[in-house]
Every structure is written in structure tokens, then in C-alpha cells.
Amino acid sequence: MRSLHDKLMNLRQRDHVKPALKQLHWLPIQARVQFKLCTLMHGIHNSQCPAYLSATVQLVATTSTREGLRSAATTNYTTPRLRTKFNERAFSHAGPAAWNRLPEAVRQVQTQLHFKKLLKSFLFNEFFMTAFYHCRCNVCCS
Question: Between residues 38 and 81, which one has the greater pLDDT?
Fold first, then answer.
């Protein structure tokens, strides 16, 4: 992928990639993982995924202890309690965690094409327009 950047953007070997990613409107790897998780969760939420995937997650509203609470009216999914940090990589935890971070306006979109468009814009803004993803160089973070 780095060689593709070099060819498209005329980058030298020691140039920073972040400005090129911003210009091409490409998501970094961590954001792509979040994009894929949220896309799968959108399919589950709209009953467009296989049963084995939807069986791994559960809406907060379907939890018996939440019936009368305000959280029962949301589109949040439960994230299971885990014993180790490694287990956070499992879809049963990572999928709902990624979905629950999305704004309600993005989650409520029904069509997959429109959802992906809003999701990519949300993730792009989150990773490039906030201090979360800033590196420590003086080139792209000034």
C-alpha cells in the first residue's frame, strides 16, 4: 500500500503518509476495522446478516433487566463483560462496542449505501479532525 501512495502522491521514502491519506480521503487501518465492524452490525440491526452473526450480539432493549429503563428505547447493543484485554477482539464485544460509539443519526439510516457514506465521513472526521489520531511530527499536525 505504501508503494501505491508513493506512485499516486509523488511521496519520497521518508515522507509522512497522513497528509496523503487525508487528501485521498482514505481511512487508516484502525478506522477500516471500525468501518467493517459497524457495517456488519448495521446488517445485523436491519436483519440482513446470517443467523450465526446475529446470535452473537443482543440489543439492550431485549435484556430482561432493562425493560423499564430509558436505555431500552435506544439502538445500543450489550457488550459482554470480559476477563482479559485479548477478548475485546471478539466480534461479540468489538461489534457492539463500535456500534454503540456511533451517533444515533448514523445508526438509524436504513439503506446500506447511505449508511456507509455517513459512517466513512464520521470515521474520517474522528480520526483526522480530532486529537485522537495525531502523530508527534511537525509536518501534518501543525
Answer: 38
